[in-house]
Amino acid sequence: MSALVFPASSTKPTPAAANAAAASFAALTAKFDYMSAADVDNVRRAYRFADEAHLGQIRNGGLPYITHPIAVAQQCAEWKLDAQALMAALLHDAIEDCGVTKPELIERFGAPVAELVDGLTKLEKLEFNTREENQAESFRKMLLAMARDVRVILIKLADRSHNMRTLSDVPRSKWARISRETLDIYAPIAHRLGLNSTYRELQDLAFQHLYPWRYATLEKALARARGRRRDVIKRVQSEVESAFAGADIQVHIDGREKTLYSIYRKMDEKHLSFALVTDIYGFRIIVGGVTECYTALGILHQLYKPLPGKFKDYIAIPKVNGYQSLHTTLVGPFGTSIEFQIRTEAMHIVAESGVAAHWLYKAADPDSDASQRLGTQWLQSLLDIQHETRDAAEFWDHVKIDLFPDAVYVFTPKSQIMAMPRGATIVDFAYAIHSDVGHRAVAAKVNGEQVPLRSELRNGDVIEIITASVSSPNPAWLGFVRTGKARSKIRHHLKTMALTESQELGEKMLAQALRAEGIERLPDDDEPHHVTWEKILRFSGNRSRADLLTDIGLGKRIASMVAKRIVSLLAETGEKPDPLLMSRERYTAHESISQGALVLDGSEGASVKFATCCHPIPGDGIVGYLGRGEGLVVHTEDCTVAKKLQHRDSERFIAVDWADEPTRTFEAGLLVTVSNGKGVLARVASALAGAEADITHVDMGQEPAQDATDLRFGIAVRDRIHLASVMRSVKRTASVLRVQRAKPGG
Asked: Which of 306, 407, 434, 618 could disulfide-link 719, Cβ–Cβ 3.0 to 4.6 Å?
């Protein structure tokens, strides 16, 4: 049983004390009891090299620069990191500040140590501005270095911790930037990796330097409250110790005080005064095993009444960063609310050190695999997202949500527990299981009942995903998914699908343009035409045939210009145009356009868009506009938007025509004027359904209902003949005064 000691003042070491402790290599070696003699010698060699390299350099506080690398190594030694990590910690500024080269480090200390130092050096060069563009690229580099070797970020967090402890020595003009960067970047990473003690310290130090006056005011208020509540705390301590002694359970009891930053944040978010923050004090109870955790919980609940809704079991369902404990809030003497955390010693190590606990466990038991996977799933997901997302801002967009994990816990049909961020949806869950499950998801059941895919997950839900082999991701999913993994997988699939469709469209357009030039078909990508294609690609500036066809489909290259170049190159090899084919293809109804009409049947996918300003349907006269980079946009011939584009950009228009049998329905606008009365909308909807037209949109306007009211419908029809049939059916409906197709732009 341990004595409970709450701090008389702030527990953080003063900068002077921290530096004094860091100045002695002997103090560092005192922490090396877990390392072999050979490892200690290697670390000492790195120290001597670093000491010599930094000779004459002084920190802002006036102490020799070597005190900083020693302090960083000291923190890494507390986490029981291996000798390579400690050597890298001592050498982490050698390349940046001392002109030491990476090859020199490889020669002296080996490639693994040099790689760690190189990774840290790259991080040192990062400037975290609050400007998104700069921050995104810097953040991406740091996360990827961390994903390749988590020791890089552990050393970086130790480095940042010591820099924050000595921030008072830095010019005050830099405090706000460094503190904000610590709160926005480094503290969340420490939390995500389960480094709770580092997370709390970084937050408090950043708070102290970002808002010095608020920090000082809260510190005084906390000291006064500590004095007022001392009697209550002592009484609770005495009663808890007696209860466990009576049950003959060996426990270790620690006092726990909420950090100043967490108190401040609670006051700010919930608009509370300091006096209304009740859970400032708590107790941590460490027991021998998992069974004793639940026994201890029972003893505490017999001693004091628990607050309803304030019990959490993070042992059965750990947090996403590996944290495990039982949390319960009890009503103590005089109605004081006190939180208790109950855990084993192993859980305590993980709670304080997170992903670093892997090395702590290895030090205690080299054969242990416990905690091996802490944080690794998240780190692996970073590499997956990077593989599909080359754009830094997009990468940052995917990842930043995952840095603040407020989790919900759900179950697969086979009772496997999965932790998801709060606000995650069914689609996020599907992608968390496997990319293919996400891509093929068409429906879902939650607790046996069918629900929409956009439904948010709730604690305890049992989720079953229904898939179909022909299904693919819907772009609308991007509007509601929460996890970076789901977002990047959907975007990657849509981009790949769009490029494939654009390539097919480009091939079709180039083939049509070649026919207009008298060449029957596109040259094959084979040996006889290899030189021809090489020359074409040099002419267009594309890397491959597929790239060129995709660019034509996206409107970045004009098919007729590429076709003319192909014809001249084929002529050099003896392939001449067919005059008969040329005259037949060129001199059609589209005399002004030097290529045959492109035939559309609705199966072209994302590469062909049907303009929403005029809603073309089969049977309408149509024109195609090749927007730069956006593929082919189809308008009706009389569309006012298309006419303006033709006047400004006529060379980007191509002839298009409908296939004899389109493969799907198309949306058309319908304006129905009705005499207002009971059940009119229902009658019109019934007439539309009877004519086999699906309603895609209804707009009744914002005006109060008049005697005659306009209803605007979006309906899906097969062609103009089907539309005419629908209009006749609606016209015969009671109370309908007039039916007309909504005019382009009208």
From this structure: 618
Q: Given phi > 0 = left and psi -120 to 50 = alpha, else beta, which region is 248?
A: left
**Residue 97 annotated as catalytic:** yes
**For residue 738, what are its two tokens?**
């007039």
Q: Where are the alpha helices (DSSP H) in 271-391?
A: 290-303, 345-353, 357-364, 376-388
465 domain residue, yes or no: no
The active-site residue out of 96, 104, 692, 710 is: 96
How is residue 123 written in tokens? Answer: 């991080």
Residue 431 within any structural domain of the chain: no
Give residue-wise pLDDT tens across range 313-344.
Answer: 988 888 776 788 999 999 888 777 888 999 99
pLDDT winner (highest mean) among 60-69, 376-385, 392-401, 718-727? 718-727
pLDDT digits (tens, 9 = 90+) for 341-392: 999 988 888 777 776 665 554 544 444 444 445 455 555 666 666 666 656 5
Structural domain boundaries, residue 723:
666-741
Question: Which CATH number fits the domain that encloses residue 123?
Answer: 1.10.3210.10
Return the number of other C-beta atoms located less than 10 Å from residue 372's C-beta: 11
Residues 66, 29 share a domain: yes
Q: Which of 154, 179, 210 is the last residue of a domain?
A: 210
Lowest mean pLDDT among 37-46, 157-166, 466-475, 509-518: 509-518
- CA–CA distance from 337 to each of 254, 282, 304, 310, 332 (Å)? 17, 9, 10, 11, 6
pLDDT of residue 589: 41
Terminal alpha carbon distance of the chain: 81
- State the average pLDDT over residues 629-653: 83
The CA dihedral of 559, 562, 568, 570, to the nearest 10 degrees, is -90
- Same domain for 570 and 587, yes or no, is yes
Question: Which is higher by pLDDT, 557 or 679?
Answer: 679
Distances from the Cα of 742 to the Cα of 129, 616, 637, 686, 715, angstroms: 51, 11, 15, 20, 11
- 241 and 161, same domain (yes or no): no
Q: How many domains does the chain have?
A: 4
Q: Among 630, 658, 686, where does a domain finish?
A: 658
Same domain flag for 204 and 226: no
Check: CB of residue 704 under 8 Å from CB of residue 733: no
Annotated catalytic, 547?
Answer: no
Question: Is 235 a member of any domain?
Answer: yes
Structure tokens at 373: 């996977």
Dump pLDDT digits (tens) for 195-248: 888 989 999 999 999 999 999 999 998 888 877 777 777 888 889 999 999 888
Element at 736 (helix H, strand E): strand 736-741
CA distances from 173 to 207, 215, 216, 217, 501 (A): 15, 18, 19, 22, 54
Per DSSP, the three-state class of 329 is strand
Q: Which of 51, 97, 184, 578 is catalytic?
A: 97
Number of H helices, E strands in the chain: 31, 19
